[in-house]
Amino acid sequence: MPDHRPDGYHALTPYLIVPDGGEAIAFYEKAFGAKESMRLSTPDGGVAHADLVVGDSHFMLAGVTPEMDLATPTETQWPMVSLALYVEDCDAAFAQATAAGCAVEQAPEDMFWGDRMAKLRDPFGHRWSLLTLFAEIPVEEVQQKMEAMFAGG
C-alpha cells in the first residue's frame, strides 16, 4: 500500500497560479534553481499542471486557463500567501533572484529571530522570502524582542 503522499513531498506543498506556466517554469529555474519534475500540458501547449523542486521541497504551478476560476496576483493587489525559502546563502540567492528579474521588497538583513532574510516579488506577483538561519534564539527571547519592536523599541 502506498504512503499517504508521494516520495520526497512534505505535508504542505505550495501551488501557484501564474499567467504563463512555461514562462514561470523557466523563470523559477533561473531565479531559484528549480528543477522541473513533471508537466502536464493543455491542448494548446500551455501548462495545466507542473511540479518543480527547489532544494528538498516541491511546489506546483499551473497557468491560468478559461476553465479555472482562479486569479493571479496583480501589481495593485498583494498576494494572499508568501513563500518562505530557506537557502544556504541568503545574499547569493538574493543576487541570483534579482538578476533573474525579481523585484526587491527588502534587501538581505539579519533579523532578530535568527534568520538573515530578503523579500522579493517575482514577475508573476508572488512574494518570496529568502532565509538563512544564522543563530538559534530561544523563543522567549524572540518574544521579548517582538514585544519591544511593537512597543517602538
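Next protein, fold it too.
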Amino acid sequence: MIGQTLAIAWKELLILFRDRGALFMLFLLPLLLATVIGGPSTLGQRAAETANETEPAIQLDVFVVNLDGGAYGDEVARALHGIDVLQITETEDLDAADTAVGKGEKPAAIVIPADFSQKVDAGEPTTVQVIVDRTQEEATGIVAGIVNQAVSELGLIAEIRYGIRAVMESTGSMAGAPLELQQAAEAQTLGVIWTQVQNLRQNPVIVVHGQDLTGIPPKPAAGPMDWYIAGFSVMFAFFIITAIAPAMLQEKEQGTFRRLLASPARRTALIAGVMLAYTLIVLLQLLFMFTIGRLVFHINLGDSLPALALTMLATALAATTLGLLVGAVSKTSEQANSLGMMLGFVLAIVGGFPIPWFQFEGVMAAISNLTPHAHAIQAFKGLTVEAFTVLQTMPHILAVLGFAVVFFGVALWRYRFD
C-alpha cells in the first residue's frame, strides 16, 4: 500500500514538474505579485528606518548666544552642541540673532545671560532665554523642551553644590580654612554625592516594569510584505485546484486511469498518492514564499515555528482536498480547470484577500469565515504580525483542517472509479 502510494505520488510529481506554466503560476507568480504590490512600500519603510538610525528625523538650525563668561554658561552651551537635533550657530551679537529669528531665518535663539554662572553659584534664580519665531510653533516647542532638559541636569548639580556650601557655612567646619581647601572639600563632597545619584539612577530602589494586563508580549511592527506574503501564499496555494482536478479527469479521458485500476494498485493508493504529491507541492510553495519573504523582505515569522508549520500543513491539505472535490464533481478536464480557476479567485476575495472581510462585523464577516482562506490568512497573520502562540492559532488551524475533512469526505462520496 505504501509503495503504491509513493509510486503514484512520484508519477504525479513528474507530470507537474514538466508543466512550466503550472510551476510559474504556483511559485513565481505569487512572489512576483507580492513584490510588485508590497515591495516598494516595504523598501521605502526600510529606507526610512535606516535613515532614522543614521541621522535624526529633524534638524533645527538655532542660534546660541552665550553672554556668560563662567563655567556654567559654557557647560550649557556644550550640552546643546551634543544634541543631534540641533544645528548650533554661536554668536555674541544678541541683536543680530534676534533680528534673524524675527525674519524667520532661524526658528529660535538660545540666550545664556551674562550673570548666569554667578547666580547659579550663589543659588539665586536665573533663566536661559529662548527667542522664538511664532510662525514656527512646532519647532520652537521642540527647542524649548530641549533647553529645559539641557539645563535641568546642570540645575541639579548647582543645587547640590549650593546645599553643600550652605551646610559647611552653618556648621563652621571649614571656617578659617584657605579658599583652595574649601573648594577642594566642596568638590570632593559633590563628587561623592553625584556618584551616589548616578548609582541610584542605574540601580533604582524601585523598578517599574511595563507589561499589559494579559501578559501578552508587544506586537512586532508589521510591514506591507507581512500581509502580502501571507495573502498571496494562501490565495495561490488553492490554485493547486487547477492542477489536481484537470489531471484526474485527463487520466480518465485518455484511458490511463482504467489501466491503473487494472493494475495491482489499490483504489485508496490512487487517491492517497495524488493527495501526497500535491500536498507536498503546496507545502513547498508556502515554504518558498515565506523563505523569500524572510530573507529578502525581512518579514516576521512569529515566535512559534511549530504553529507556522501546522498552519502550512493544514492549508496544504485543505487546498489539495478541494482539488479532489472539484475533480470529483466535474465532468471534463476543461470544466474542472475553469471551475478551479473561478474558485481560486472567488474564495480568495471572499476569504479576506486583499480586503480582510473577517475583521469587519456583519454578514460579510460571517460569509468570509465560511471559507478556509479566511482562517488560513488569520492564522498566518496572527503568527507573523501579532505574535500568536500555538494555542491562539489552533482554532484557525482546526477550522482549516475541518474544511479539509469535509472536502475529502464529499470528494470520496462523489468520486467514481470507472
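About the second fold: The beta strands are 60-66, 86-91, 108-112, 129-132.
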